[in-house]
Known about the structure:
- By secondary structure, the chain is an alpha+beta fold.
- It has 15 helices and 19 strands.
- It has a nine-stranded mixed beta sheet. Strands 1, 2, 8, 9, 10, 11, 18 and 19 form an eight-stranded mixed beta sheet that branches.
- Bound molecules: flavin-adenine dinucleotide.
- The site of flavin-adenine dinucleotide (FAD) has 42 residues, from α1, β2, β9 and β16.
- Pfam families: Mqo (PF06039).
Amino acid sequence: MSRQAATARTDVALVGAGIMSATLGAVLRRLEPDCSITLVERLDAVAGESSGPWNNAGTGHSALCELNYTPERRDGSIDIGKAVHVNEQFQVTRQFWAYAVTNGIVADRGFLNAIPHASFVRGARRVDYLRRRQRALAPNPLFAGTELIDDPDEFARRLPLMAAERDFSEPIALNWAPQGTDVDFGALSRQLIGFCVRHGATALFGHEVRDLTRQGDGSWTLLLGNRRTGQSRRLNAKFVFVGAGGDALPLLQRSGIREVRGFAGFPIGGRFLRAARPALTAAHRAKVYGVPAPGAPPLGALHLDLRLVNGKAWLVFGPYAGWSPKFLKHGHFTDLPRSVQPDNLLSLLGAGVTELALVQYLIGQLRLSGPERVRMLREFVPSAVDSDWELTVAGQRVQVIRRDRRRGGVLEFGTTVLSDADGTIAGLLGGSPGASTAVPIALEVLRRCFARRYQTWLPALKEMVPSLGVELSREPALFDEVWSWGSKALQLEVA
Ligand SMILES: Cc1cc2nc3c(=O)[nH]c(=O)nc-3n(C[C@H](O)[C@H](O)[C@H](O)COP(=O)(O)OP(=O)(O)OC[C@H]3O[C@@H](n4cnc5c(N)ncnc54)[C@H](O)[C@@H]3O)c2cc1C
């Protein structure tokens, strides 16, 4: 039998200790030093789910190398609209990180490292696509400096590991962007949450939010279960941010807000091959993204990355898709079935019918044997030796399925911020481009849910993100200024 304590009160409840709650918490703490903040996390650590360094790919997604953001139009021209949008979002995040390190919010800059981003293709047709992609991107200030490399000697100079034992009779090319980054979102989350706690926030680890009930005054009462003792308690909050990763959909469903009706979720896991042999990591100093396979989700393109985690260099290759009905890596097999409700059944079925290519891709991925995975690795590293690489299981991404009049439901790969009409609760569904967009997402939550106070916060927010409200791709001089300021503050030097 669980015993129940009196209801505690807080201004803001943050559900989940991943990068999203950490970022929103740190921004709010800075804006409103006196408001009470309580963070509730079901695990015993920060970033135990998708934000942990081994649960994601650590790419500072800025569309420098991800080919899904630069599709080819029918007339052969390259559409760079999505790439510019994703890069603009990353610039907002990067500026906040620069602010955080110069203002004592984050003490250790080691979470962020400069690592070139490259796109890699084989075959004459794709080489031609990369040439056109480079020409389309290069005039934009956010992508200036992107090079086309199609000379085998230069390829070998930049990427010795990928060049070793490669048959260069087939045309190859790279788009090379020196300004890319590798990010340890776990180390960053720990520092941001540490900052909140040092400045008066309360953190409850090992506590799970099991239910949320709206009160007559518009506040929310959260039912919390202590996973160690079995005790339960109540927490009343004026504002709730559901930064629960894959669990955001079920929690928002439990809140009963109208805005979540019709949404469903579909979990896709990720697995990577990982190697730490110094001879390998020394010969590959980049993140290299390939062409997405047919049916693969947007960020499902295979890539070979140098990662820096706790100061140690690793090579990581993947993702290979995994599947389980769990919405969290440490979740329950009942997560998917329990999320199906009368209001989202049609959305789920509709998406199932329209996403046959994705289903086929997933089945193909699940059937991959160990040697088949290494064969795919050898397309990047022809000299790869099986025994250097181990398979790791990364986090779960719960892709959003949205109701669609015509098709019943459509699967979306972006991130959706949901909030109720009164701005008392907000949450985040979906997972791409993910952690890299944590800061624009936090700002969006504040703008929607604290609409009146947002105006008074603007001067402080502009200190955190000097380009706030400006499209940097249209303001090259401002871009140069904030880029140089950020690079200096973050001490970004190419690895
Ligand atoms: C394979 C993979 C690769 C990725 N690669 C990248 C990448 O290269 N770059 C990038 O920017 N993004 C990437 N992402 C996406 C990125 O990892 C996520 O978008 C981001 O980490 C989500 O952060 P979050 O704080 O919302 O969720 P999470 O980090 O998942 O945190 C949610 C937290 O909420 C807790 N929680 C859940 N339910 C409850 C509850 N009921 N009560 C209390 N606590 C609860 C969980 O335990 C967890 O700690 C990747 C994701 C995956 C899966």
